[in-house]
Amino acid sequence: LIEEVKRLLDQGYPRNCVAMQSFGYKEFIEYLDGKRTFDEAIALLKQNTRRFAKRQLTWFCNDPRIEWIDTSQFSSMDGIVDNLLTKNFV
Q1: Which domain CATH number covers 52?
Q2: CA-to-CA separations, 27 to 16, 44, 58, in angstroms, rounded
Q3: Of the candidates 25, 18, 21, the residue with the CA atom closest to the CA atom of residue 1
Q4: Is 43 domain-assigned?
Q5: Which of 16, 39, 18 is nearest to 29 (CA)?
Q6: What pTM does this model have?
């Protein structure tokens, strides 16, 4: 990922463009600019990813259109797929 960020910066992509603000890019830009150590960038990336996952889970849990499937009731992936097909999810 660091090499990708370096390459994009070398190609002239601005640091503040939306794509460069995604997970990993923003943190590694700060590392490459000397604003953070590598370990700090990794720690921040992990923290930001956890926060995003928590917000995403909260959103899914509060969206009435989402139907959760208890996969523990199935013995195989085929059972899960069959269940989805009978409910017209796919």
Answers
A1: 1.10.287.890
A2: 12, 7, 24
A3: 25
A4: yes
A5: 16
A6: 0.72
Helical ranges in 1-90 per DSSP H:
2-10, 25-32, 38-62, 77-86
Q: Could you list the residue range(s) of the whole structural domain that residue 7 is in? A: 2-64
What's the confidence (pLDDT) of residue 67?
85
Any residues with CB less than 8 A from the CB of 42 and at least 6 apart, and which? 27
pLDDT tens string 32-78: 999 999 999 999 999 999 999 999 999 999 999 998 888 888 889 99
Confidence at residue 90, expressed as pLDDT on a 0 to 100 scale: 59
Total number of domains constituting the chain: 1
The answer to the question of residue 24 being in a domain is yes
